[in-house]
Specification:
about 290 residues, mainly alpha, about 50% helix
Length: about 290
């Protein structure tokens, strides 16, 4: 099982982590990961014994598809859910929204619920694109035709077929996704090298190093902008400022390595030539 990396979250998490193998043809190719219920309201005051957002982010980075579940009666996005969605930054292409139990409201209410859901998600996801939302009643019970109506029945069936098609396509497109993840990590490593080299170059040679490092940490967002403009790097490849600042607190900037142009050129050549050549060896999963 590929879960040894989770040991970093300690025994408090591992004691709550369960795994089971079930005999089913689909499960020969797909692993489903189900998170515990996200805390909301008064429950948010209860602190979990492990880093819930960190664990979610670990799984998200290794997954092929991420489903965020909502139902018509619980559209509010709690603080914890907001932190979880925020941890999915950079995984936007994997995210799908599922509006479950949609047969519990009539078509007029469903239209209002759908609009309210997109409005709430727009504030949290902070992306101009509209997310793909699957609408239906995804369980083993028959759809309530009285609430759904004839149009709702047809809509729910088509949405369910689309969701199952998305799941069935995961094994077929797995190679394509793996290469995409590899390219993401390579681009992130390149950006990281430029940031580290820039921070090293901003440090004074002799006196006032501690003060200079603190100032760089406080103006980290401005430093990101400088690196982006000087090196002409895409803004989307840069990490979260807050997470990066928290990580940098444990290091001495003066000991960072300077940029090695040959290594960066090697990464650029790999992205420009080696990856396309590798892709030619595989059949097109979209045909």
């Amino acid at each position: 099982m590929p879960y040894s990396g989770l040991s970093a979250f300690g025994t408090a998490f591992l004691s709550k982590f369960e795994c089971s193998q079930m005999p089913h043809p689909l499960l020969d190719h797909i692993t489903f990961v189900d998170t515990p219920g996200v805390l909301s309201g008064e429950k948010q005051r209860t602190q979990r014994s492990y880093d819930f957002t960190g664990v979610t982010s670990w799984f998200a980075a290794k997954s092929d598809l991420i489903l965020l579940l909502f139902d018509p009666h619980k559209l509010d996005i709690s603080d914890e859910f907001k932190r979880v969605i925020g941890s999915l930054r950079g995984q936007d292409d994997k995210i799908r929204i599922v509006l479950n139990k949609a047969d519990q409201v009539d078509s007029q209410q469903l239209m209002r619920v759908y609009g309210a859901l997109l409005w709430s998600l727009g504030k949290v996801l902070n992306t101009p694109e509209v997310m793909r939302v699957y609408i239906g009643s995804f369980n083993d019970k028959p759809i309530r035709e009285r609430s759904a109506g004839p149009l709702g029945m047809e809509l729910f069936e088509r949405e369910q077929d689309d969701l199952l098609s998305d799941l069935n396509d995961i094994p077929k497109k797995a190679c394509d996704r793996r290469i995409n993840e590899f390219v993401k990590r390579a681009r992130s490593a390149k950006v990281h090298a430029h940031i580290i080299s820039h921070l090293k170059g901003e440090m004074p040679a002799l006196m006032g190093k501690a003060k200079a490092q603190q100032k760089l940490l406080e103006t980290l967002e401005e430093q990101f902008d400088k690196v982006q403009k000087e090196m002409r790097l895409p803004a989307g490849d840069f990490p979260s400022v807050e997470e990066y600042r928290e990580t940098l607190n444990a290091y001495n900037f003066d000991r960072f390595e300077r940029l090695r142009p040959k290594m960066v050129q090697g990464v650029d050549d790999m992205l420009a030539y080696d990856i396309p050549d590798l892709l030619k060896q595989f059949s097109n999963p979209y045909q």
